Amino acid sequence: LPLDERLKRRIIDGERNGLEADLDASMADGRAPLSIINDILLDGMKVVGELFGSGQMQLPFVLQSAEVMKTAVAYLEPHMETAEDGGKGRIVLATVRGDVHDIGKNLVDIILSNNGYEVVNIGIKQPISAILEAAEQHRADAIGMSGLLVKSTVIMKENLAEMATRGVAERWPVLLGGAALTRAYVEDDLRSVFPGQVHYARDAFEGLSLMDRVMT
Ligand code: B1M
Fold this sequence. Notes:
The structure is a single chain. This protein is α/β, with parallel strands linked by helices. It is built from nine helices and five strands. Strands 2-1-3-4-5 form a five-stranded parallel beta sheet, sandwiched between helices. The chain is globular. The model has no long low-confidence stretch (mean pLDDT 96). This is Methionine synthase.
């Protein structure tokens, strides 16, 4: 198989042996680490999602694919260009309560960290109380929540309601992202019930441009 195709296959098949050599070869060919992730590996994850969704792939294999994805991202990260240090602002990032998906959240972490933001990544399955505590403790400038399950979109709504109840809705701009969210849900449904700023980010790059916007 051609190199790009082989890398994509590695994600789909959860095949880790020789992964680093292929990643090195791709970078030696002149492909930027971020392009390897976005244009090749994420395509593989998309196929995994489709296979799983249609019952053609079982969960343990999805997990293996996710592990290979994470290994690849961790391997590529040191090769990425870092634009600035963490002086542009600080964001607390979490996957919401009940949700374990963290590949997207961790990509957002990498993109923001490499572009001048300090990221306090508190992990998966985080209740709103823990998110707010971290934001308070680290004197964050913004809060980012990720979640991939349909259920997580409801949790996000509850989280915003909780922020309003606690009177901190206007204290932190909130960025939301994850596969089950839609722009309309965030910008119409959620915005209409939240007195603060809430933004939808389709991907990590939109997350970055939103941060650049809310921080100025
Ligand atoms: Co799960 N899973 N999974 N899964 N999984 C999905 C989400 C699903 C759509 C698959 C499917 O059915 N086709 C489906 C959800 C269906 C639904 O809710 N209607 C699903 C399910 C059902 C489940 C379980 C319930 C399965 C089960 O146990 N029976 C279970 C849930 C457990 C739980 O959370 N309580 C489960 C478990 C898992 C694994 C553990 C095996 C694994 C996760 C491993 C890990 O993350 N460490 C896994 C995986 C890998 C997937 C799929 C295949 C891929 C997700 C992924 O990593 N994509 C996924 C299928 C899919 O998404 N279509 C699926 C790549 C990643 C980069 O994309 O996270 O969307 P994503 O991030 C994007 C953007 O969304 C955005 O930026 C990124 C790109 O730049 N973004 C943000 C994300 N967060 C952001 C935050 C921001 C800004 C942008 O600012 C704060």
